[in-house]
Design goal:
Layout lengths: L12 H14 L3 H14 L2 H44 L8 H25 L3 H12 L5 H7 L4
Amino acid sequence: MTTRTRMNVYFDPELLKQIEMLALRRQVSKSAIVDAAVASFLSGDAGDRLEAAMSRRLDRLGRQIDTLDEDLAVLGETVALFIHFWLASTPPLPDSAQASARAKGVERFEGFMQMLGRRLATGDRFLKELSRDIDSSGDVPLPEQWEKDGDRS
C-alpha cells in the first residue's frame, strides 16, 4: 500500500466547485482528481496530447473542406447547366414585349429572393433535397437524354 503525504493547498472557489462537481459525477475523491491533474501536468506528455488533438481537428476540417469543395462543384455545374438550357430554349422577345418582360423579370426576381430567404431561414438546402430525390428516384435521366427523349423531368 502506498503512503500518502498530506498537503494543504488553496484553490479559487470556482475551480473548487468544478473539482467537487467532477468528483460527484465520476464518483471519485477530490484528492484523486487533483492527484491526476497534477500528475498529468508534470508528465510532459501534454504537448503530445495537444498535438494529437490538433491533428484530429485538422483532419476533420480537411474532410469538411473536401465536402464543401464537392458541394461547390455540384452547385457550379447545376447553375451552368441551368443557364445553358435556359439560354438555348428561350426565344428572343420582340421589341414591343421588352418592357413588360423586364417588369415581369423584376417581379419574379423579388419572388425568388423571398423564397431564397425563407429556405435559408428554415435550413432547407438544395443539395440535401437533391441527394434525397436522387436516392428515392433511383434512375434520373442525364441531360444528354433530355433532348433525345423529350423528357425534362
